Amino acid sequence: MLSVHVSTQLSSAPGPHDLLGQPAMTSLAVTNPGSLIQSVDWVAIAPPLIAALAALAVLVADLFLPAGRKKALGRLAAAGLALALIALLPLVHGHARSTFCLRNVTGATDNAACSYVADHFTLVFQLLALGGALITALLSIHTVDEEKLPGGEYWFLLLSSATGAALLPASRDLATLIIALEVVSLPAFALVGLRRDGRGAEAALKFFLSSVTATAVMLLGVSFVYAATGSLHLSVIADGLAHAPAQLKTLAEAGAALTLVGFAFKVAAVPFHFWLPDTYTGSPIPIAGYLSVVSKAAGLAGLALVTTIAFHTYAHTWGLALAVLAAVTMTVGNVAALRQRGDTPHSAVRLLAWSSIGQAGYLLVPLAAAGYAGATEPIGATVAYALIYGVVNLGAFAVVAVVARTAGSRLDDYRGLFARRRWTALALAFFLLCLAGLPPGVIGLLGKVVVFRAAIDAGLGWLAVVMAVNVVIALYYYLVWTAKLFAPAGADVAEVVEHRLPAPLTATLGLTALVAVVLSVAPELVLQVVGGSLF
């Protein structure tokens, strides 16, 4: 009979190092080498735990609240996400913390293999995941009412997916990574399908089938890696691959390649991007924004962890593969965005969808540079750009949600928006200039400079040239959309009656615009978040 005892005792003994090289604090109370008795660091796991508890609270509250008071579920979900964000504060200062660890593991850092590590890398991605989910929740409050979506199910699914997104960057073994990835994805399928029309069902089906296929391939790769190394912990896998017998090297290499497929799908890297445009246009607009930021950030975090820790032995190989993938992804995304016509239904959402694929290519550049450099320093550039992209892209989707309420979701529906909604038009113009990397969107320019430098420092000059060409291509469609905002309104748009915005929508627009402006005025805030070592 196996007896496992869990207590709340915390330990300050030094343990493994985090992804950025900082010493980690492990939470262990092991009485003998083979024992599974250990304490749990509740402070370290608090952010995803609070989000999960909030999801359960919403589900239970939905059973008892009368129909007239269901709107309170949205406020409860937003409060839960805000509380999860507050739970990050005790983890900001001091050493990284680890829990769910096994001692005396051969090949592990400091002889301990941990499944959950709350280090600097983890906290930044948890900030992005939970912050993005909170903005999505604020953006969704009016959508749930206006589109008559089932509130209890919607908020439960959103919180569940956010829980997986917060858990994934802290995961340090392949089993936990896969579980977290599926917790992000499975509720997202249902969220896309909650729209009660043909587009919602089609989008959910495409999303589901492509994701299941990618997951199956990834699980096959994980089984190969486990067969070659005998472990699922990332640090132990790294040691196992470095000392794998010659007869197992082919199996290990195949396993590493297949394992990356699932994360490439979540990032929407080409050729795993085909599901994304139709899924975005068929989803409720807040969910499209959520998928473009939070879901993408989760996949990016998993990809960074697996490549730089577990598959460090193959750094040069996956570095070249990611460099090619980044070049193809940004090119396909930006060229396809050029083809979006202003009079096509849902062209605004489709343009943002293709733009997010192009942005995914930029996000992959520092990961490729990390492979070439054989170090984790370039990862900071990915973290910085992900934070910047998350804020401005969610802001752009918030404006799309505002315009779609009265005018529509075509690009032509934005013609003359400045005359109808001055501050909304100015906010969208600022978001688009940030995405393009043009002043006054200084924070967007900073993000691109950081990514450029990571590529050049790693000796990837050709990739920097490809990125420069794509930035120029993207300038065209971002500036064309911006110009529409200040152009004279068309006859079909001039008669649109603009109503007062709901308070949650106003709060979302104000919050995202404020953060983007503050970061543009004080870009050093981003550098401090990612460790201050980008330049």
From TrEMBL:
Domain NADH:quinone oxidoreductase/Mrp antiporter transmembrane, residue spans: 171-473
GO molecular function: NADH dehydrogenase (quinone) (non-electrogenic) activity; NADH dehydrogenase (ubiquinone) activity; quinone binding
Membrane-crossing segments per the record: 42-65, 72-92, 123-142, 154-171, 177-195, 207-234, 254-276, 288-311, 317-339, 351-373, 379-404, 425-447, 459-480, 501-522
One of the protein's GO biological processes: ATP synthesis coupled electron transport
Assigned keywords, A-Z: Cell membrane, Membrane, NAD, Quinone, Translocase, Transmembrane, Transmembrane helix, Transport
Protein name per its UniProtKB record: NADH-quinone oxidoreductase subunit N
GO cellular component: endomembrane system; plasma membrane
Summary of the function given for this chain in its UniProt record: NDH-1 shuttles electrons from NADH, via FMN and iron-sulfur (Fe-S) centers, to quinones in the respiratory chain. The immediate electron acceptor for the enzyme in this species is believed to be a menaquinone. Couples the redox reaction to proton translocation (for every two electrons transferred, four hydrogen ions are translocated across the cytoplasmic membrane), and thus conserves the redox energy in a proton gradient.
Annotated family: Belongs to the complex I subunit 2 family.
Enzyme Commission no: 7.1.1.-
Location(s), subcellular: Cell membrane; Endomembrane system; Membrane
Subunit structure comment from the entry: NDH-1 is composed of 14 different subunits. Subunits NuoA, H, J, K, L, M, N constitute the membrane sector of the complex.
Membrane topology, record value: Multi-pass membrane protein
Catalytic reaction list: a quinone + NADH + 5 H(+)(in) = a quinol + NAD(+) + 4 H(+)(out)
Source organism phylogeny: Bacteria, Bacillati, Actinomycetota, Actinomycetes, Kitasatosporales
Species in which this protein is naturally found: Kitasatospora atroaurantiaca
InterPro entries: NADH-Q_OxRdtase_suN/2, ND/Mrp_TM
Top-level division of the source organism's lineage: Bacteria
